[in-house]
Specification:
Length: 446
């Protein structure tokens, strides 16, 4: 007994059943239940011994705290790593997609930054989805253009059913109509390569139009409809186009640059040299080398209805107005007047004074479908013969000479006019004719 008590200094109570043989009351009272270990004898359950295990309990508590802290730190770290991966791979791409859609609904013509994929074939599903949304948005912008901005904005902001057939909007704008010269001849010779030809002409045309503040609208085979919107012209409100001299000047300058750049390309063979146009058939090769690439442009200012044309099966975002038709007829008239560019008086009056001084009035005509005559103007610097101006009457007659068929058709009128000019009795006609010829040679076109 003495040996046992000597080797177990943590014993606080011992009972043989009848009474306590040993009891450290003060120490026992200071311990909690968890700090007391009571053992019962196997042979006699009345014999019990109680031990102070407070040190062991404290050691276990410290170990539990350490383990709990370690597990907490480990879980927190793993949670942060998981959250970061989840944000980068899932949440952030979804937020960017939502932001892209919101931006497009507010500004359908917004230039979207392309999603760069630097991970090659290891891209995640969200990367593929994000790239797809960006590409589809870019395709919407390219397909609809500025005229379809309202269609894109309306359907992206409305979570209901797709409805591309939104009401049209009245706008005031400058309309340009450009057409490739002798396109049928080029098509027959180029065959499938005609797409390369048309797209290269379109690239030159669209580049200058966009840089001048305009928007390409429709590509109709060999023709292009170009639009420069004027501010303050929606919903029938008064247009501030008369104050936008810079836009008128820019539109005219852009068309002149298009004509100059396309004309500087020379013949069709050299025009297609750098774009894979080397598959021209031998039978057409010599003919196409003599085909000089050229384009004609008509410019007019007026109102139009901007909106969707078609049905829910297929729509085009474009402009409906007699003023668009006038721009087309102005371009067609360039072939008759043998000039690459004609503009209406409505467009001419919008130009600044110094630009107007470089233009000359060509004619006053009544187009089909028009109720009033239209003054036609031309910029001599864009003329087919502007680099080699005439200096006398004979040169003027030479460059404006008619072929024999035309001469036969108008023989009577020409003979009558010639007789009046040469007749002594019609001296006034001769004076007027000489005055006009001299005025033209002196570039007095007013």
């Amino acid at each position: 007994r003495e040996s046992f008590f000597g080797s177990h200094d943590n014993i606080v109570a011992f009972s043989d059943g009848a009474e306590y043989d040993f009891l450290d009351g003060a120490r026992l009272d200071s311990l909690r239940d968890v700090e007391i270990l009571t053992l019962v004898s196997d042979t006699d359950e009345a014999v019990t011994a109680s031990f102070d295990v407070s040190q062991d309990t404290a050691t276990q508590a410290i170990l539990s705290i350490v383990i709990t802290a370690f597990v907490s730190i480990l879980l927190a770290s793993m949670g942060l790593l998981f959250s970061r991966d989840a944000y980068q791979l899932v949440i952030h791409p979804i937020e960017k997609m939502k932001h892209t859609v919101q931006q497009l609904s507010e500004n359908p013509l917004l230039h979207l930054e392309r999603v760069k994929n630097n991970r090659g074939n290891d891209s995640s599903e969200t990367d593929v989805l994000e790239q797809a949304i960006t590409k589809m948005a870019a395709l919407l912008q390219v397909g609809f253009g500025s005229a379809g901005a309202e269609i894109i904005a309306k359907n992206l902001s409305d979570m209901g059913e797709l409805n591309p057939m939104i009401p049209g909007v009245r706008v005031n704008a400058i309309f340009g109509f450009a057409d490739i010269r002798n396109f049928t001849f080029a098509t027959e010779g180029l065959q499938q390569d005609v797409m390369i030809f048309v797209n290269k002409v379109a690239a030159i045309t669209h580049q200058h139009v966009v840089s001048s503040g305009g928007h390409p609208n429709k590509n109709i085979g060999d023709a292009f409809l170009l639009v420069w919107k004027l501010k303050g012209g929606k919903n029938g409100t008064k247009s501030s186009g008369d104050l936008q001299k810079d836009l008128y000047n820019s539109a005219l300058a852009a068309c002149q640059r298009v004509i100059r750049d396309i004309k500087s390309c020379g013949n069709l063979a050299s025009f297609l040299d750098d774009d894979g146009g080397g598959n021209i058939s031998t039978a057409w090769a010599s003919s196409l080398k003599s085909y000089n690439v050229a384009i004609g442009v008509g410019l007019h200012k007026g109102w139009a209805i901007e909106g969707a044309i078609g049905s829910k099966v297929k729509i085009d975002a474009s402009y409906l107005s007699p003023h668009v038709n006038i721009a087309s007829r102005l371009e067609a008239a360039t072939k008759q007047y043998r000039v690459p560019l004609l503009m209406s008086e409505a467009f001419f009056t919008g130009l600044s004074g110094h630009v107007q001084s470089t233009c000359r009035r060509v004619d006053r005509v009544m187009f089909k479908g028009s109720t009033d005559p239209i003054q036609l103007y031309h910029v001599p610097g864009a003329s087919d013969w502007s680099n080699d101006p005439v200096s006398n009457h004979n040169e003027l007659v030479a460059i404006t000479a008619w072929d024999e068929d035309t001469y036969e058709q108008y023989r009577g009128l020409i003979r009558d006019a010639q007789n009046k000019i040469d007749s002594d009795n019609e001296i006034s006609h001769r004076d007027v004719y000489d005055c006009l010829i001299n005025a033209y040679l002196d570039k007095d076109w007013t």
